[in-house]
Amino acid sequence: MIDHIGFTVSNLDLSRTFYDRAFAPLGIRLLMEVTEEMTGGHGAHLGFGRDENPFFWIGTGKAPSTNVHVAVSANDRAAVEAFYTAAINAGGQDNGGPGLRPHYSPDYYAAFVLDPDGNNIEAVFHGGFTS
């Protein structure tokens, strides 16, 4: 089980705004800010999560040579759709609108959006028609 994930972004303020808006429908919010001074010069970091558990981190530093893909759980199909709309309205780029992906599993309902750095951010619900 993965406890948290983190990656660098090219513009922390722009990415903060994007994730604040894109994650709101999923009940994920900014929980923690760590300054560069606090890390002893190892970058500034923002931790997003639920229930006081920051599990999704972005920060400053050397950018990765390739983009990442991160999938976040949604409570129902409506949350997947709301994530997609919020992310697009926050400046994200479509990378696969809300819908079933039966090639993953029969009830795999997801949406994919590229963040300001081209990272593939997904919201997924694994539960059929309970939205």
TrEMBL record:
User: Which parts of the chain span the membrane according to its record?
Assistant: none
Q: Which residues form the VOC domain?
A: 1-126
InterPro entries, from UniProt?
Glyas_Bleomycin-R_OHBP_Dase, Glyas_Fos-R_dOase_dom, VOC_core
Identify the Pfam families for this entry: Glyoxalase
Q: Which domain of life is it from?
A: Bacteria
PROSITE patterns per the record? VOC (PS51819)
Q: Which CDD domains match?
A: VOC_like (cd07262)
Q: What is this protein called?
A: VOC family protein
Q: What species is this protein from? A: Paracoccus amoyensis
At the highest ranks, the source species' classification is: Bacteria, Pseudomonadati, Pseudomonadota, Alphaproteobacteria, Rhodobacterales
